[in-house]
Amino acid sequence: MTAGGWFEEAIHAHATQKLEITQVLYSSDTELQKILIFENPTFGRVMTLDGVVQVTEGDEFIYHEMMAHVPILAHGAVRDVLIVGGGDGGLLEEVLKHPVARATMVEIDRGVLDLARRYLPSICKDAFDDPRAELVIADGARHVAETDARYDVVLIDSTDPVGPGEVLFQREFYAGCKRCLKPGGILVTQNGVAFVQGEELTSSWRHFDALFADPAAYAVAVPTYIWGFMALGWASDDPAHRRRPLAAIEERYAAAELDTRYYNPEIHLGAFALPTYMKELMR
Ligand code: SPD
Fold first, then answer.
1. Of 179, 105, 184, the residue nearest 147 (C-alpha)
2. How large is the greatest C-alpha to C-alpha distance in the chain, in angstroms?
3. 166-214 pLDDT, tens digit each
């Protein structure tokens, strides 16, 4: 995987991406997964889990801004947010830019949090120390099945559906997410790069369709999640959230005083316009 000073991703059977390693900052196995953090001239610090790129300093803003700001601004009155996964803290940091009362992050691997604090401070910034952040080291599937808390928005910042992340793509888990959403709340999930992982979108969309009034997805192009658009799954019982007019999103965006580099109100609306090959996966 790291031969010749290059990281070669171990995710797809017949296609790969390679990233040059100019310095290995950390490499080990935690109880749950194999973690590598290295420096790359194009993307800055890169963290991989079990041979798959999870986050890079260079392009993290794209994925994290779109996962946080689209549902929060579409909802318009978010107080309580749940993040499942997301141990690098990048998504938590975006969520906390909003005037939420509480952002609970349930991450199964404490090692990822500790390493993010140490090696990826440009990504998590001071999010873990924000008094509104509640950090829970636990199984996210168990949390959504058992918690008494209720959330306006639930965000699933998972790995791919292998290893510890597999359960986070199953119907029982999504039913748990619905269980702990407040009425009209919004669930957003990472559903893979549609061109090469189409079955993730199809299977999650079918679960959403069985559980929620408004099953959907939106698209985001993240350079290091290569091979085209990543699908972010969307599920809510309130279809109005997905159909907010541009003027409403513009007003909320201006009021939130966000400093974003990918997200803007036009991208928010446009992200729900999917290419036909993605639409065809959602049936
Ligand atoms: N193919 C890898 C997808 C990883 C998505 N989650 C990354 C976590 C970033 N906070």
1. 179
2. 53
3. 999 999 999 999 999 999 999 999 999 999 999 999 999 999 999 999 9
- Testing ligand 1's pocket by substitution, the residue of 88, 190, 199 carrying the most ligand atoms inside 8 A of its CB is 190
41-50: per-residue pLDDT in tens? Answer: 999 999 999 9
How many whole angstroms separate alpha carbon 278 and alpha carbon 92? Answer: 28
Domains 6-56 and 60-281 share a fold: no
Cβ of 204 closer than 6 Å to ligand 1, yes or no, is: no
Sequence-ordered list of residues with C-beta below 8 angstroms from that of 218, at least 6 positions apart, any chain: 66, 70, 231, 232, 234, 271, 272, 274
Under the banding of pLDDT at 50, 70 and 90, the label for residue 3 is very low
Does the domain at 60-281 match CATH 3.40.50.150? Answer given as yes
Pocket test for ligand 1, best of 112, 123, 158, 196 (most atoms within 8 A of CB): 158
Cβ neighbors of 209 (< 8 A, separation 6 or more) are 215
Which CATH number does 6-56 carry? 2.30.140.10
For ligand 1, atom 7, name the residue with the nearest CA.
54
Q: Where are the domains of the chain?
A: 6-56, 60-281
| Closest to 27 measured CA to CA, from 12, 39, 41 | 39
